[in-house]
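Re: beginner question about structure tokens

> Can someone show what the tokenized structure looks like for a real chain? I only ever see the sequence side.

Sure, here's an example I had lying around. Input first:
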Amino acid sequence: MAEPFILILAGMALVTYLTRVLPLLALTEIKMSPLLLCWLSFIPVAVLGALLGPELLLQGGKLNFSFSNYHLLAALPSFIVAVRTRSLLWTVVAGMGVVVLLRSL
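And the corresponding structure tokens:
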């Protein structure tokens, strides 16, 4: 029972490692244009927006902009804390605190 699990785990680790290392090795020798580098710099923001958008705006598959959407209400003070402190810890604490406060009301 343990042997297939170990083999599967090792295979997943190898695939994860290779998908991160091979592009790094291939792209270290290539000089990329400034336009491409500028375009690539927007990818993390786009991915974050794609992950957060549905989580904040949808409840039960439908758009919810009401005051019952605690995630959206907690995102606003979290954003302010993130801009002012630039601390992930305080941003998460603020968001969780607002959700706990809203659920207790």
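Each token stands for a local structural state, so reading them left to right follows the chain. Residues 1-30 form one domain.
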